[in-house]
Amino acid sequence: LIKLCHGAVPQTQRRLATSISALTSRTVKQAPTAAKGSTSFQAIQEERREQAERSVLISCPAKINENKFLDELTKHGTIDKHFFYNSFGTYAVVEFSSRESIASLKESTNIPAVQHEAAVPFKSRLLSLKQTGSGSHPTPNFQEQSPPSINDLIKLLSEQDSIDEQLQSLTKALELSDENISLRFLVCSLLRDIAGAYFPECIIRPFGSTVNSFGKLGCDLDMFLDLDDIYASNQKTGSGLSLEYQVKRGASERVVTQSILSVIGECVDKFGPGCVGVQKILQARCPLVRFAHQPSGFPCDLTANNRVAMKSSELLFLYGTLDPRVRQLVFSVRCWARVHTITSSIPGAWITNFSLTVMVLFFLQQRSPAILPTLDQLKQLAGPSDKCVIEGNDCTIVSDVSKITMQNNTDTLLKLLQEFFEFYGNFPFKKSSINIRKGKEEIKPETSPLYIQNPFEITLNISKNVNATQLERFVVLCRESAWLLQQGEVLNRSSEQTADSVPAWGFAALLLPSVSSGAGVKSRRKKKLEPASSRIKNLLDSLKIKGGDTAAKKGSA
Ligand code: CTP
Ligand code: MG
Fold it and tell me: Which GO terms are recorded in the biological process aspect for this UniProt protein (predicted)?
């Protein structure tokens, strides 16, 4: 997570943001992975949060007897939902109908007696179940929490009948499952119990790919500590007297955030069961605590006061609901970029998934007719209750999606994919920036190799970290992939298939390592970069002339 720049936030502004979000009633269509029965982004988040508060996470013996397990737990109340998964051991998530069940369950749970060591007697909702005797009983169904391996994915894609079907099945295979999202909210809720010891009104909210509808199984869990409810009550007695809390003061909002995160980080480290490898990264522009939550397997980033990032998660969610091709193209491009190490899980000069997503959105705004509206259009359609200003940034977007008129664009996913690669293979990165607010390229305000305007903090570049080498690798790979997607051997499924394997074709062929190494980009680049690039560019130009309409930009690349 790289979140840029936090200035001091006057309390009144924060309260305004809270009350506006409380007033806002939204009717966004439900994303495929969203909680059932909810309609708006906020309502989905609230419903998930409330479910998580009624849930427990239990480490179980590998040969768990599911019926006996459920019989035991229903002694404490009705169970709404439960599922098992494996992650360095067997775990169960159990959601009760009422919170009283959690209290009852905790009453009958013991602090373990440990030998040679001592235990921190912190009673969390992460429990261990001991079972005496295994007996013979059916194995429960385990929910998968990890993405398929690249080889399995290539196989799955190669079995599809068209490239459009490939992109659709890739999205289904990689997207977060309903259970995985529940587990993510449960981890936030478990951490809230730790932070709640100091700040009972606090909420830990997930943001980023957990909630923006572009999350892939295995992605990190971005969270922020929301303290806004602490400021919510402002009672006047009418007697002319009023009481204030005596508070400790810090030199700035940033300093206070650092102190709070430092203490919460310490508690997570010392008291948080299952939380390992805690690192406090408090000097970053957006201070954070990073750790791994072992029982869920999630790499976690905990920040504070990150409302703007939450709003960009809502914006991405909104874009993702407008047309199914948006998520399908984003998932495919992100997968392609990850396989060819254009993106990385290690922070550095790589393009991030967030940047790539915004690049896809920008490309879809450039189509003729446009597939997605600009951010300015979403703002123009907003009603008075949609007004939202956070830390001085106008984050207003329409909440009523029925006000958004979608244009009739019937491009296939194959066409979009081909033209995405052409578009960025020829984009004038040297002089232009990517701007989804205006929906058009603008002159770069500074010399970063890749300039993508932050949607809400408009003076920031979300891809400031990207260096020229990484951008060049992306451009070359786009050109190679555009070229490959014009070849008959790649476009058509081979008839030479055996009973148990189909040769990789279509999008699956673009995921093969040879695209970026060996026969692909690297070897060609090693020989002579320029002729290879111009050869492909010429080839593409001739294809463009033959193919007629294209959104690819001519000019310097
Ligand atoms: N963010 C931002 N500016 C950046 C980077 C991130 O505003 N330069 C915000 C975005 O809202 C982003 C969130 O922080 O969605 C989380 O960042 P990150 O974890 O890097 O991206 P994700 O969208 O969560 O994607 P991933 O699946 O790679 O975690
Ligand atoms: Mg993330």
Answer: RNA 3'-end processing
Query: What pTM does this model have?
Result: 0.86
Whether 312 lines ligand 1, by a CB cut-off of 6 Å, is yes
Q: Give dist(CA 425, CA 423) in Å, integer.
A: 6
Backbone φ, ψ for residue 222 (5° rounding): -90, 130
ipTM confidence score: 0.98
Ligand 1 mean position, distance from CA 97 (Å): 33
State the distance from the centre of ligand 1 to the C-alpha of 59, rounded, in angstroms. 30
Q: Would you say the CB of residue 175 lies under 6 angstroms from ligand 1?
A: no
Strand partners, 304: 225
How many residues in total does the chain contain?
Answer: 557
Of 354, 375, 391, 459, best ligand 1 pocket probe by most atoms within 8 Å of the beta carbon: 354
Q: Are 451 and 434 in contact (CB under 8 A)?
A: yes
User: Quick one: which H or E segment has residue 473?
Assistant: helix 468-484
8-state DSSP, 79:
E
Cβ of residue 166 lying under 6 Å from some atom of ligand 1: no
Q: Is 186 in the pocket of ligand 1 (CB under 6 A)?
A: no
Closest protein CA for atom 20 of ligand 1:
1
Q: Is the CB of 210 under 6 A from ligand 1?
A: no
DSSP 3-state of 442: strand
Query: How do the pLDDT tens digits run along the chain, 557 residues long?
Result: 333 333 333 333 333 333 333 333 323 333 333 333 336 898 999 999 999 999 999 999 988 999 999 999 999 999 999 999 999 899 999 999 999 999 999 999 999 988 888 999 999 999 999 887 767 788 889 999 999 999 999 999 999 999 999 999 999 999 999 999 999 999 999 999 999 999 999 999 999 999 999 999 999 999 999 998 888 766 666 788 888 899 999 999 999 999 999 999 999 999 999 999 999 999 998 999 999 999 999 999 999 988 999 999 999 999 999 999 999 999 999 999 999 999 998 989 999 999 999 999 999 999 999 999 999 999 999 999 899 999 999 999 998 888 999 999 999 999 999 999 999 999 999 999 999 999 999 999 999 999 999 999 999 999 999 999 999 999 999 999 999 999 988 998 877 766 667 789 999 999 997 665 544 433 333 333 333 455 444 444 433 433 333 333 333 32
The Å distance, Cα 73 to ligand 2 centre, comes to 34
CB 197 within 8 A of CB 183: no
Distance 114 CA to ligand 1 centre (A): 41
